[in-house]
Amino acid sequence: MATTDEFLRDYGVDIRTNGQRRWPDEVKARIVAETLEPGATVNEVARRYGLRANHLSEWRGRARRGELVLPAVLEDDSLCFAPVIVSGPRVPSSQDDPPIQSVSPKPIEIITVAVTIRLDADIGTDRLVEIVRGLETRA
Fold first, then answer.
1. What pLDDT shows up at residue 2?
2. Which helix (H) or strand (E) holds 32?
3. 44 with 33: CB under 8 angstroms?
């Protein structure tokens, strides 16, 4: 079983020879996000990471002031969809309106910090879900 220091090093925490720890902002943000989970307490989360509760509370204050950006937290492990605005020909309101002309589908574009993916519009739903899940694992 890994020691606390080994565990923290795996997270990217720099532990100096005098015992001081330098926490990357991404790690601080993840830890603060854990304190916001339903039922979690600052003391419990601080103890898990070998922190003092007041130190973790300071990080929470930084997050409230916008000085520490928290990761997006999903309600559950399901996929999260972004809202889509579709514009184009209007939908006929009655039988008298002329039919909508078919428009060639535009490719789907997924843009992340590290990569841009362009897909044919006729990609299957299952394949699209696989790609999105693959991107989640890289994050």
1. 55
2. helix 25-35
3. no
